[in-house]
Design brief:
The protein is an all-alpha fold. It is 71% helix and 0% strand.
Amino acid sequence: MPIGILASLGISTILYILVAIVLTGIVSYTALNVPDPVAVGVDAMGPGMFWLRPIVKIAAIAGLTSVILVMLLGQPRIFYTMSKDGLLPPVFSRVHPKFKTPHVSTIITGSVAMVIAGILPISILGELVSIGTLLAFIIVCISILILRKSKPDIKRPFKTPWVPFVPIAGASICLIQMVALPVATWIRLILWMAIGFCIYFFYGQKHSKLNN
C-alpha cells in the first residue's frame, strides 16, 4: 500500500509538471494568472486545435467537480470525528438512520460552502484554500516528528520514511509557499483560526473525551 501511494503521488507530480511546462511553452506565464489557465493555453493554440478546446474544458470542469465533491464528502466526516471526540456539538455526529452517513454535517457543510462560493471572488477562495491546506500539511509534518518522539511504539498503518528529513522538508516547503501568499490571506487565516480557538476553548476543551 505505501509503495502504491508513493507511486501515485509521483505520477501525479510528474503529470502536473508536464502540464505546466506545456502551458508555459504555449503562453507566457504572465498570462496564466487566471482562474482557467488550461483554457487560456488551449485557446492560444490557434484554429487548427479548435477541436481540442471543448474536450480540455470539459475535462477541467469534471476534474474541478470531482475535487469539490471529495472535499464536501471529507469535511463532514472530519466534523463527525471531532464531534465523536467531544470537540464539536453532538449534532455533527448524527448519522442518517438509513444511509448511515453524517447527513446533518453534510448539509451544514454544503450550505456554508454554497454561500461562501457565491459571495467571495474565486481568487480569494483559491488563496484561502491554499493557505489552509498548506497549514494543515505543516501541522501533519510537525506531528510526525512529535509522535516519533512521544509515542514511538504506536501502531502505524503507514510509516513515513526518512524521518526527520521528509517531515522537515515538507513543512519547510509548505511554509515557503505560505509566505508567498498575500498579507490579506494571512489576516483571513488568523481570523479563521481565532474562531476555531474560540470554539475549542469555550466548548471543545470542556467536552473533550480525551481530557475527561
